[in-house]
Amino acid sequence: MHSKPSFDPICENGNQILKPFLIGVTGGSASGKTTVCEKIIEQLGAAGIANQEKKVSILNQDSFYKDLTQEEHRLAAVGDYNFDHPDSFDKEFDNNVIKISFTKENYSSSNL
């Protein structure tokens, strides 16, 4: 039997709230990353809960690809564009989403 993870709460106006944290899951194509994330969500008790009610989110790196130039579209069309290269991702957008997700206003007790 698995036990639920414990978290160190922080207090705000006498209310305990959980400070968010990030779990990074990496691996090659078809290596089971999505399955691992689904298992984490299941173990945290968030499986089957509507997105707006969840306290767990998945940020999929596929959401952070840069817009392709015409030349990159041409290369992609013939299989010559490397979507796994770090330069294919919009790192600034990725970083901003993570920063916003971890601002106090986004995890305060009024938003839980």
From TrEMBL:
InterPro entries: P-loop_NTPase, PRK/URK. Pfam families: PRK (PF00485). Signal peptide: none annotated. GO terms for molecular function: ATP binding; kinase activity. SUPFAM superfamilies: P-loop containing nucleoside triphosphate hydrolases. Residues 22-90 form the Phosphoribulokinase/uridine kinase domain. It comes from the Eukaryota. This is Phosphoribulokinase/uridine kinase domain-containing protein. It comes from Oopsacas minuta.
